[in-house]
Structure formats: C-alpha cells, structure tokens
Automatic annotation (TrEMBL):
This is Histidine phosphatase family protein. The lineage of its organism: Bacteria, Bacillati, Bacillota, Bacilli, Lactobacillales. InterPro entries: His_Pase_superF_clade-1, His_PPase_superfam, PGM_Phosphatase. It comes from Streptococcus lingualis. CDD domains: HP_PGM_like. It holds the Pfam family His_Phos_1. It comes from the Bacteria. SMART domains: PGAM.
Length: 229
C-alpha cells in the first residue's frame, strides 16, 4: 500500500481576502488574480509528476471553485473521486462573518480579552474570545472547533488509506489549516504564513497524522514562472 499523504491547500484569493473582510462561513468567489494563482498551483503540481488518487474540499464555494481549477489543470476532473466535507470548513466568526478583519482581530477581540495583539493569544483563547463577542451565538467554542476539524481530516486520511493510500488533494481554509497543524504538533499558537494556494503536507500512518511541510508555495511559484513564459 502506498503511503497516505494529504496535500492540504489553502483556497485561492477571494474578493473578501482582497478587501480584508473576515470570511468564515460566509463566502465570496475567487478574484481573477485568485483564479490565476490556483491555475499556477495546478500547473506546478502537474509539473511535479505527482499522482493523486482522491480529492476533498470543504463545502464552501471558494474551496469548491479552487478544487475545480486544480482538477482541470491536472486533467483529473471526473477521473478521481471527489467529495465535500463540511468538517474542514473555515472557523465561523458568527455575527462578524463578513465584517472587516481589522475590526474583529485588531479591535473587538483585543479589547474584550485585554491584549494588545491578538497574535499573542492561543488559538483556544482566540476561538473562545470570538464566541464572547458573537451576538448571534453561531461561532464555535474551541472544544467544538478542534473536534470537528481533527475529526474531518482524520476521516479523510483514513478513507484514503482504506482505498490503497497515495496522494490526496484537500482544499481548506487558513484558520482551519492552522488549527490542524496546532493540534497535530501539540502547539497552542502558530500564526502560520499560509498564503492562498500554499500546500501543507500531512502524512497518515498507524492512525496518526504527521505534519511534513507547512505553507509551501513552491508548486504555485513553478506554475507562475511557466505562466509568465
């Protein structure tokens, strides 16, 4: 059986990413620049010679759109199994979904939790702080958030392994990928540099996830160089 590896990709750049809004469970499509960046990623993955056996994404439109572009570039559309999994959605920001990120992360949360910089918080404190300021009561407390994210990725990895292993494409979201890495590596807070279209590599063996690479932009960069030429 081939080794099970998840190529966990942050979706392409969206309208809300571009204007600095917190996206969460709300959704906007990729911009033209975002589409081009994911096309570059697909080209880079194709040039690498990697073979992929299965594909997964969250059920958010931006993740589905991203996966569609990648599968097109790899010539794998309708060629490999692909399904959505809502467990690997982004964090829900509740009443702040769609609000300006600066208002939430640099204003409300630091004021309520009495810190100068939200990046000094653990992911647990940040998640629970968002719950405190969410007047809609939609945001997920840390215990719920970490359980659904870890459960989602473990289920995906197990499914890949049960079907012979190999490389799987997985499109998810910035805070969700940070949470996954945090949980797997046992670190409370990482502030990872996860650019749109970057790849975080996770292996699965003996029922255990292991992070092998974080926020790798090299595939996209190879594709961008080929786009330019």
């Amino acid at each position: 059986m081939a080794k099970t590896r998840l190529f966990v990709i942050r979706h392409g750049r969206t309208m809300f990413n571009t204007i600095g809004r917190a996206q969460g469970w709300s959704d906007t499509p990729l911009t033209a620049e975002g589409e081009r960046g994911i096309q570059a990623l697909g080209i880079g993955l194709r040039e690498s010679g990697l073979e992929f056996t299965r594909a997964y994404s969250s059920d958010s439109g931006r993740a589905i759109q991203t996966m569609g572009i990648i599968l097109d570039e790899l010539g794998l559309k309708d060629q490999i199994p692909y399904r959505f999994d809502k467990r690997i959605r982004e964090w829900c920001f509740g009443s702040f979904d769609g609000a300006y990120g600066g208002e939430l992360f640099h204003g409300v949360v630091p004021r309520v939790l009495d810190v100068e910089d939200y990046k000094t918080l653990t992911l647990e404190d940040l998640a629970n702080g968002i719950c405190q300021v969410d007047t809609a009561n939609w945001a997920e407390p840390w215990e719920v958030l970490k359980s659904r994210i870890l459960e989602g990725f473990e289920a995906i990895a197990k499914e890949v392994e049960e079907n012979g292993g190999g490389n799987a494409l997985v499109v998810s979201h910035s805070w969700t990928i940070q949470t996954l890495v945090c949980l797997v590596e046992g670190k409370p807070n990482l502030n990872l540099p996860l650019s749109n279209g970057s790849v975080t590599l996770v292996e699965y063996e003996d029922g255990k996830l292991t992070v092998k690479g974080i926020g790798d932009s090299s595939y996209r960069e190879v594709g961008e160089s080929l786009q330019e030429s």
